[in-house]
Amino acid sequence: MSFHVKVDATSSRVSKDEKRLEAASTLFNAFDPDLPVDHLSGNLPHWRQESRTYFVTFRTADSLPQEKVNQWLVERAGWLRSNPEPHSEAQRREYWERFPARFHYWLDQGHGACVLRESDLQQVVESAMGYFNGNRYILSEFVVMPNHVHAIVTPLGAHLLSPIIHSWKSFTAKKINATLGRSGTFWQKESFDHIVRSAASLEKFRQYIRANPKNVVAKK
Questions:
Q1: Is residue 196 domain-resident?
Q2: Per residue in 57-108, pLDDT tens?
Q3: How many domains would you assign to the chain?
Q4: Looking at the domain assignment, is residue 44 inside a domain?
Q5: Residue 32 belongs to a domain with what CATH number?
Q6: Structural domain of residue 35, as residue ranges?
Q7: What is the full DSSP assignment across the chain?
């Protein structure tokens, strides 16, 4: 089983200016509590601040059974009703462990067809994500798993996170479906995105990405 882990911007096969990307790969813009936060609509929380660094997860449409997702949404809604904002650091840790961390654990259980195990389909995703690296965003680290993708990304200039993720998913869905000779939804519509709050959090996300291939459950 082979997974492709990108540990810095210079490792991208589509990088056109390695020195520029090497310098830019250290870019990190943490969450700023003094700046306004935009809240986008959807089942998942989407906080936005301009040019921040995000930990992002997007998954294939068949990556989780719907009953598990429904269970998770109900429990999360109940927790949020009982824990109105603003949240303390302890509440943020509890939220992460009960909801995003559990969701990611489920993804590693290998539900769905897991077509991204195939190296040629992994390469489609890698190339798409690296194409505008250093231009529209800094992609400092990412991993393509069998049914999902994790990335640490910082949008640049006027470029926003949602269009960046949409472009990755739209291009790769079309190409992968064409390769597989099928049509229909490839990626789940919504993605996880979390503004990185500190250098310590950034390091935890990096370590998670690097370790993730070891945590996946092999399909029988």
A1: yes
A2: 999 999 999 899 899 989 989 998 999 988 898 998 898 899 988 999 999 9
A3: 1
A4: yes
A5: 3.30.70.1290
A6: 4-13+21-63+113-215
A7: ---EEE-SGGG-TT-S-HHHHHHHTT------TTS--EEE-SSS-EEE-TT--EEEEEEBTTSS-HHHHHHHHHHHHHHHHHSPSSPPHHHHHHHHHHTHHHHHHHHTT--S--GGGSHHHHHHHHHHHHTTBTTTEEEEEEEE-SSEEEEEEEE-TT--HHHHHHHHHHHHHHHHHHHHT--S--B-S--EEEE--SHHHHHHHHHHHHHHHHHPPPP-
